[in-house]
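sry for the spam today, last one i promise. struct tokens for design, 202 residues
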């Protein structure tokens, strides 16, 4: 069973609970984005390194195709760096980048829908095993969570991944998705209920 589904907001087993990101926690990466926008090449590299993992995890869950995650993440950063001159810091750089990642995945899905499919069968287990490193703690849980998330409608999966997997504040997730905070909370609650039902059934 995954910690993301069962850990309460308080402490569990004497260990401190994971804390959700705040605007203040995102200030350093936002400063990096602004420095990169102003032409600092080192800031560009540090900005990409700081957010690469979050973008990779987000696009992998959102696209339901872990094998395409590297390409989608790279496309996200290419788009972001190409439009960095327009970033003004009104939102955190993380939120801005995840919004671009979301549009990148949507564009990819639209493009894929226009092509004929070679197979009607999506083998999530195989795809997840090929895309993730083996032999690490929590690997089996990661595959199990991926399979469970695949059964949730895309909009609920997206809200759940942003807030529960990537630990984004609800307001930041709402900004990335482009919907009210209440809608994000509702989608997360429904996703959580569906996941818990699936776990109980298993």
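last one done:
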């Amino acid at each position: 069973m995954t910690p993301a589904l069962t850990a309460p907001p308080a402490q569990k087993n004497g260990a401190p609970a994971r804390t959700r990101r705040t605007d203040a926690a995102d200030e350093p990466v936002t400063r990096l984005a602004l420095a990169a926008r102003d032409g600092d090449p080192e800031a560009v590299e540090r900005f990409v390194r700081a957010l690469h993992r979050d973008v990779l995890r987000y696009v992998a869950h959102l696209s339901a195709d872990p094998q395409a995650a590297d390409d989608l993440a790279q496309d996200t950063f290419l788009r972001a760096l190409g439009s960095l001159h327009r970033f003004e810091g009104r939102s955190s750089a993380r939120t801005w980048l995840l919004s671009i990642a979301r549009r990148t995945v949507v564009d990819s899905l639209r493009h894929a829908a226009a092509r004929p499919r070679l197979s009607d069968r999506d083998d999530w287990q195989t795809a997840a095993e090929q895309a993730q490193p083996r032999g690490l703690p929590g690997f089996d849980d990661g595959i199990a969570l991926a399979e469970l998330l695949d059964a949730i409608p895309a909009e609920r999966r997206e809200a759940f991944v942003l807030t529960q997997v990537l630990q984004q504040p609800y307001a930041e997730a709402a900004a990335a998705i482009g919907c009210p905070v209440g809608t994000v909370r509702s989608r997360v609650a429904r996703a959580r209920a569906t996941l818990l039902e699936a776990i109980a059934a298993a």
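The chain has a mean pLDDT of 76. ok im logging off now
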